User: Fold these one by one.
Assistant:
Number 1:
Amino acid sequence: MLTRLDLFPITARIVGDGASARLQIGGCDLTDLAAQFGTPLYLYDRATLDTAVAAYEGALSAYPGPTGITYAGKAGMNLALAQWAASHALWLDCTGQGEIAVARAAGVDRAQILVHGVNKSPEDLAAAVDAAGVIVVDNLDELQRLIALADDGVALPQLWLRLRPGVAVETHAYRQTGQSDSKFGLSSDEFLAGIRLGQAHDLPLTGLHFHQGSHFHDPAPIGPALDAVLDLLAVVRSETGWTAQHLSPGGGWGVAYHEDDLPQPSVADYVGFISNGLQGGCAKRNLPLPALHVEPGRSLVARAGVALYRVGAVKRTPNRRWLLLDGGMSDNIRPALYGARYSALPVVQPGRSASGSAWLGGPYCESGDVLIQDLPMADVTPGELVAVPASGAYHIAMSSNYNGSLRPAVLWLDQGEAHLIQRRETVADLMRRDLPLP
C-alpha cells in the first residue's frame, strides 16, 4: 500500500505510529486541514512544484541554444499558480481572455504571456494583442484577422504558426492533437501559405509550434514529427528565406496516476530526446538552431496536487464494495471522460493492509461518477478521509456545478503553512448569474 506514496507530493510523510499514524504533506496534517477547511479539499505542495521546474531547467541546460519553459495554464490556472509561474520566470500559456486576465492580475510580464486557441473569438484576439508577447496562430482565417489589424496600424506581438505534423503520440484518442485530421493547426501547405502572407504584410512571424497529444510516456513518436517539421522548415527556407527563431514541440509529458504507472516518467529522457533530435536534425538540414520551448502543464503540477475527500457511506453490492465520497465527477471529470486510473490512501493509518478491492464513487446522479475502480483498499468506515494523489492537473480547471455542486476550496502548502488560494464556492456564487423570469 505504501508504494502509493511515490504518487504523492515529494513532501508526503507518515507521522506517528499505530492507530495515530497520519498522512502529512508539506508539513501539514491532512486531518487538521479537513477539519478547518472542509471537504472536498484540494492541496498544492509548493516544494513539489518547484522541484518539477528544476527538473525541466536541468534537462534543458544541455541544449546549446536559448530555451524557455511555458506553463500550460489549461492544466490549472488561478491567481496563485500564475504568480508561482511568474516567480520562476516561466512563460504562461493562456487560452482566451479569461486566462489572459488572470495572468495580468498576477503580474505576469507581457513578454512571458503566450496565447493559444483553436478558434479565438474577437474578444480573445483583442485581449491577446493587448497583453501577450506571443500569439500562436492556429489557422489562416485567424491570420487574416491579424493582417487586418496590422493594416489598421495595430502593433502585433510575435506570431508563431501552429503546424499539424500528421503524427500523434500514444494516448487516449481525446488527448491526441497531432494527427492529420485533428482540429488543431495548419497543414504543411497552409503553413507555407501563412509564411508568404506574413512576409507580404510584414508580420512579426518568428516561430513554429506543434503539439501531438497529452499524457504520453514514450517520446519516440516525437521523432517522426520533428523530422517532418524540420523537412518543412528546410523547404520554407529555400522558397521564402524564412527561418524559425523559436520552435516549440508543445508539451504533454505524462505522470504516474496509479501505482501501475510507477516509476515516474523521466523529464530528462523526454527533454533529451527532443534536444538531441532538434540538434541533429538542424545540422543534417543546415538549418540554424532555434530557441527551444517546451510547454509542460500536467508534468509540472499533477503530482503537486492532492484531492481530499470524506467517506459518507460504505455500500456492498453483489460484486463490489463501494466507498461513497463527498466529491467526484464535478471536481474530477477525467475518469468519466478519459477512463483515467487513480489511486488513493486513507489519511489515518495509511499503511493498513488491503482487505479487498473497492470502488470509490461520487455523490452525483450519474453511473459514470466513479473516481476509482477495483483498487485494493483497507477497511474504511464512514467519516474517514481518503487522499487521491496526482490531482493537480485538469481537475479544478475542468470542474463544474453539475447537480448544483459547489467547487472545492484550494490550499497552497509551503513549509508547514497552509494558505487558502481559492475559497469554496457558495450557493450565492452558484446563483449569481441567474435572473428570474420577467
Number 2:
Amino acid sequence: MKKTGFVSICAALAAVLVFVAMPIAGAAVPEAVQFMSADGRTLLTGYVFAPPAPGRYPAVVMMHGRAGSYSSLKRGPHNADALTMRHKMWGQFWAERGYVAIHVDSFGPRGYGDGFGKHSYSSRPQEVSEQLVRPMDAYGALSYLRTRADVAADRIGVQGWSNGGMTVLAAMGPRPPGLQNPTPTTGFRAALSIYPGCRVQAAESDYKPYAPLLLAVAENDDEVSPTVCRGLAESLSSRGAPLEFYWYDGAHHSYDDPGKTKQGHEPNRIATQDTLRRAEAFFARYLQP
C-alpha cells in the first residue's frame, strides 16, 4: 500500500487548500451520448465533459451512487441540466485538467432514474446490481471512449462514489463482469473508489485489483462501514496490491457534495479538498503521458 497511515487530515489544511472545483458559472453543458453496456442489451446514456481545445486526452469513466445521476431538486426530465452538483463539479474538474470525463447513468435506462433512498440496499432490484451489472456499464463506457478521436484509448481510468465506488471495486477485481483477462492494458489503467461499501470484496480471499486503486473513506459514514474498508485495505496491502488508502476523520458519507449542507461541516470540506488534490495527482501519475 502506498499510504499506510490511513491519513487523518488536520484542520490546518483548510487554510492552504482552495476549493477550486465548485461548478463554474457559464461552464459548457456536457454532451449527452448513448452507448451499449457490455451486457450487450442495455443502451446507456452518458454525459461527456471534454476540454475545449482539440486533442487526444486521457479519460475518466464516472459511476454514480445509489441516488442516481440526477438532482432530487430537479425531478422531471433526466438530462444534462439535471445532473447533481457533485457530478457536474467532478466532470468540470477533470475537463479543466485535460481529461475527457463521461458520467454514466446506469439507473435511468433501466427505469430507476430517480435513484434509491438511504438504507434501501436489500430491496433494490438485481438489474442494477453494483456487483454483477454495473461493472458491465463501466466497461461499456470504456469501449465507447476508445472510439472517440479525442480520447487516448490506452489511458482511461474509472471513478465511483458510494454504490458507484462498490461498482469500481467489483470492476477492478480478478474476474470482473464485462471483461475477460483484465489487465491495465485491456481494462482501466487506474481507479478511484470514494466511500464505497467494501463487504463483498473484503470477504473474497483472492480479491486484488488488477490496476492501481485509490480508496477514500469517511470516519462518520452512516451508510457504509469505513472500518470494513480499512480491513480490506490492510488485506490488499499484505497481498502487494497497488493501493492508496485515505481515512478522513469526522467526515460524512457524500462528503464531496459541494452543497452548503455538506460543505458547512469542516471535516467534509477538508476531506473534499484533500480528495480532489489526491485524485488529481493519482490520475496524473497513471493516466497522463
